[in-house]
Amino acid sequence: MLLPSFGSELRAAIKQRERDMKSLLGRVLGAVVLVSLTIPARGIPAVYYEGREAGGPSEMRYAYRVDAEEEDYGITEFRVVTGDLNLENYTDVVKPEGWEFGIGNGVNLGCYGGYTEVGGFAILLKHVTTQSVVWWTKDPKSAITKPFTFGFNHSAEPGDAAWYMVSQKPDTFCEASAAPVGMGCGPVHGPGTTGIPEPATVLLLGLGSVVLRRK
Predict the structure, then answer these.
(1) What is the pLDDT of residues 69-106, one digit of tens each?
(2) Strand positions, DSSP E, the chain
(3) How far apart are CA 187 and CA 5, in angstroms?
(4) Are 125 and 112 in contact (CB under 8 A)?
(5) Has this prediction a pTM greater than 0.85?
(6) Which of 185, 76, 198, 75 is nearest to 137 (CA)?
(7) What average pLDDT does this structure show over 22-34?
(8) What single-letter DSSP state applies at residue 168?
(9) Which CATH class is domain 41-201?
(10) Domain locations in the chain?
(11) Neighbour count for residue 70 (Cβ, 10 Å)
């Protein structure tokens, strides 16, 4: 028969052991989730951020290596959120042969709350934006079926940015907001994205400009 004090100590030790095991299991599961967010699934294109502004290997201040395989059915469109809609401010644009580059709209993309180093975790805001730069082709023979680095130079300060792709299948792909920045699945960087206003602010500014024109 156990003495009362010894029995209490044993029960306390067992409970502490259970807590330790739960904590270990939580850390293991967290690591598994992180790895799954970092490593793209087979057949899904990934976007690695290689911009010079973040210490990447590219000569371009903003650079995006799209890893696409033939099984992705060929990428025909790639977008990145931007804070600048003036096409003249984008220089030294890198694009595949047979592709175009311009300012895009019509696709709702996520907005993020600042600048995050590559490998860190960005903060996704509640509102969306249609502001993006877009590379595209209408020629099926020009579709991307192997890795290619898109890029450009721009003087604006960088911020976290969503990306979006379209394949020939057609399928659409976008970043996973909970994944690390610039490492394949997560957000990347775009020019001037920390200054993108919320839709309500844009509406108020538009109303103000209408009022001014009517005076």
Answers:
(1) 766 679 999 999 999 999 999 999 999 999 999 999 88
(2) 46-49, 62-67, 75-81, 91-94, 100-104, 109-112, 124-129, 132-136, 148-153, 158-161, 163-167, 172-174, 183-184, 188-191
(3) 56
(4) yes
(5) no
(6) 76
(7) 42
(8) S
(9) mainly beta
(10) 1-38, 41-201
(11) 11
